[in-house]
Amino acid sequence: MKICLCITRIKSDLTEAISKNFFKLSEELAKDNEVTVYSPIEIKVPKNTKLVKYSNNHSYESKFTVLKNIKKLGNLIDKEKNNYDIIHFHVGFLLEAYLLSKLIKKSKTPLLITIWQPYLSSKELSKIAHFIIIKPKDYLYHFIMNSFFIVPFLAREIKKKYNKIIISSNFQKNQLLNFFPENKISKIPNGLEDSTIKKEVFENRSPNILYIGHFTSFKGIEPLIHSMSHIVKRYPEAKLTLAYSGYGSKNRVFELVRNYNLRNNIILKKKIDVYPELSKNDFLIIPYRSSIGTSHYHNVLLEAMSVGIPVLASNIGSIPEIIKDRETGILINPKKPKQIAKKVVETFQNKELLNNISKNQKKLFKESFLLKNITQKHIELYKRQNGNS
Questions:
Q1: 82-107 pLDDT, tens digit each
Q2: What's the CATH fold of domain 208-368?
Q3: What's the predicted TM-score (pTM) here?
């Protein structure tokens, strides 16, 4: 099968979720298919894969760059669309899907699109309204490009142009059902390779806690550091490793660490090898305060599950579809730092609970999120759309 995979924005080190999953899917598909990858940057691709680099000035952080990429990619695919059996786009927002659809004329080749962040409902938007007011440059684009008021204007064209909209979670599906018929939507989770690294076992010590991500307010970095000030009252030697993505305010984090007198308890890292870093810790904490970043199944959560490190995560977005409290993780309220601290301490002291969560997480990962199985789901969908089932 001749498969065309396209992405509008990609991070060169492939650490960010869309970038990593797009690359891993292309790598797995190329084992048995002829794959062409359209990327705005140079990336290493497998032997059976052709790379088409379509941009000379790509900046992952720039929203304007994405718009330029969409125009270049859309025009290019419109010319090449009949050379493939399937064309599969990966985008962040519905607006990107809409803009691409306007550039591509009627196609005999099935067009599929994976959307990672469907949209912000009025209820979800109200949760981050104060963040938009405080730091409009950081968050206003979510309101403009990705909220409930714009979706009705986009849905008609998206429905007409794409054969299938692929999403990862039930949370996303339920959102899109407000505007799209169910037969247009396919749920295929993001898949990852199983980790060969297992969690290290330590005895008679304080807890080691890990956070991986942005230093932004709606990711919950402030209440996490606040919770650490309570954890050290029980475990003075407890450590919190903050693996910084490079996005958000480091200065604000340093200020909080000083204010809570946590200099000896906080470890800041920028570049990490995810699986080994996970294996060195007792918990991964995902204290998000918005569904942004969690409407799809959160990559780092799945990576933690494959290693067997228990996850404490907010009861928000798609997270409760994976994390069943005290079974496959611990659910927390990011607005209550003291409660987060209490759950860390109580769970750390309950070795039986820790072991059960670890086993259940690894079992769920292997049953539902292995890359080879997820890739097979994509291939089956491609064949159905191409009329080869």
A1: 999 999 999 988 999 999 999 999 88
A2: Rossmann fold (3.40.50)
A3: 0.91
